Amino acid sequence: MLSDYQQQLRAKFLATPVVAPPEPWRYVDQTRRCIPVGGLQGVGFGVHPQTGVDLLMVVSIDGFGLIDAPTGAKIARDRHPDPDDASPSGPDLACPGIGVLAGTRVRIAGLFGGGLHATTDDGWTIDVVAPETLLAI
Predict the structure, then answer these.
(1) Which structural domain range is residue 85 located in?
(2) 53 found inside a domain
(3) How many distinct structural domains can be found in the chain?
(4) pLDDT averaged over consecutive 10-residue blocks of the chain (137 residues)?
(5) pTM of the complete model
(6) In this structure, which of 12, 63, 97, 123 has its CB flanked by the most CB atoms within 10 Å?
(7) Domain-located, residue 9
(8) Angstrom distance (rounded) from CA 69 to CA 129
(9) Is residue 21 part of a domain?
(10) What is the 3-state secondary structure (H, E, C) of the chain?
């Protein structure tokens, strides 16, 4: 049960208007705003070795996917990863990279634990704000 203060705070969060993200943040696709992934188990980030672009690696029950984070383009897919490496493992909860990340291990956060960075070198931070799992940037 929420206290009066918590109820007021919840109402305040829910009444806050949804606005466009501040620069340099932007929606990946103005029409979809999300990339559906069935059976999602976890995600991790890597850096494209030639361009320096952030890449999102997705681990699901249907294999691995690699997505160009700025554009949302799907750039690699492995529907049948080695069963010994198909789930995040080891002390760093990593999976083998695919596509341009092949030969590296990508740390994964998700159902098996782990965590992602919550700050950037230039001062951006992200926090999960309950009660409706709102993100504050």
Answers:
(1) 39-116
(2) yes
(3) 1
(4) 86 86 70 77 93 93 92 91 85 92 93 80 74 50
(5) 0.69
(6) 97
(7) no
(8) 23
(9) no
(10) CCCHHHHHHHHHHHHCCCCCCCCCCCCCCCCCCCCCCCCEEEEEEEECCCCCCEEEEEEECCEEEEEECCCCCEEEEECCCCHHHCCCECCCCEEECCHHHCCCEEECEECCECCCCCECCCCCECEEECCCCEEEC
